[in-house]
Amino acid sequence: MMSEAIIPKSDTSYFYQEEMDNALRFGDVVKGFTLTNAEILKPWDSICTDYQVNVKMPPFSVILTPCCSIGAGTLLLTPLLRVDVALFANPFLAEDLTRINRIMPPDKAVPPDKWEKIDAGEKARRELEGTTFAFVELFIYDKHASLPSYDINKRSKNSEDSISINHYMIDFRNIFKINCKSINSPTAAPLESKYLQLSPEGRSELRIKLARFFSRIPAEDAVALRT
Q1: Domain boundaries, the chain
Q2: Is 157 left (phi over 0), alpha (psi -120 to 50) or beta?
Q3: Spacing of C-alpha 183 from chain mean position
Q4: Span 89-108, mean pLDDT?
Q5: What is the mean pLDDT of residues 199-214?
Q6: So which domain of life are we looking at (predicted)?
Q7: Residues 6+ apart with CB under 8 A from 70
Q8: pTM above 0.85, yes or no
Q9: Do 38 and 51 contact (CB within 8 A), yes or no?
């Protein structure tokens, strides 16, 4: 059971630091970095040429290297993405997208209609486990005047509404390593790439959720560890 308090927050001044440090930090929004990924049909056990390497330069990326580990010519990055419209299916999240970054009661982590369809035994199990994250693989970057707005279509049972937002998100399943010789330390780095900096509170939320994403224990391991 997770014990962090549920704190209602939707204040950009809380999420971002107004005066940025002269250093690269965990959670920073940065520009100008090229990201690559390889595509293969399946792993091979001999020389194979059936692969594809994709090269992209997203408008913005986010640093996922811990502050104290930035250097040695490497950096962990993930692209800053537009928000998935599926998040708006849950009214609790749609009211404040940054709630995804924090733990919540289990009945708030799914849309009301889905919660009603869950059987009593499963509801009891989830309630016993306590507060949880919704979309454990995602983290929302709050709106900011320096981030471009874009339109998103929210669908409901009887209508479709287009709204303009400038919230963004990152996906922990989409992390890249980049080699850059000019990154020697947090301060000895290309600081001109730095665009936005999280506040200490924002970094703490990102750190907690990223740790939760990687520390989940599958059911079979939980059983084995109890025996």
Answers
A1: 20-215
A2: alpha
A3: 23
A4: 95
A5: 97
A6: Bacteria
A7: 24, 25, 26, 63, 183, 185, 186, 189
A8: yes
A9: yes
- What distance in Å separates the CA atoms of residue 66 and residue 105, rounded to the nearest whole number? 29
Number of Cβ within a 10 Å radius of residue 129: 11
Using alpha carbons, select from 175, 176, 177, 197 the residue that is nearest to residue 186.
197
CA–CA separation, 209 and 213 (whole Å) = 6
User: For residues 30 and 9, which has the higher predicted lDDT (pLDDT)?
Assistant: 30
Q: What's the pLDDT tens digit per position in 132-153?
A: 999 999 999 999 999 999 999 8
Token pair, residue 60, equals 């913005």
Place of tokens 């928000």: 83
Q: Exposed (0-12), middle (13-18) or buried (19+): which is 156, by Cβ within 10 Å?
A: exposed
Nearest to 123 by CA among 143, 142, 108: 108
The C-alpha atoms of residue 182 and residue 72 are separated, in whole angstroms, by 9
Give the 3-state secondary structure of residue 133. Answer: coil
Which letter does DSSP use for residue 74 in this model? Answer: E
Question: What pLDDT, on the 0 to 100 scale, is given for residue 3?
Answer: 40
What is the model's pLDDT at position 11? 57
> How far is residue 72's CA from residue 180's CA, in Å, rounded to a whole number?
9
The residue whose two tokens read 């959670």 is 27
Rounded CA separation 109/99 (Å) = 10
Residue with tokens 């929004």: 29
193 Cβ contact partners less than 8 Å away, ≥ 6 residues apart: 24, 30, 31, 32, 33
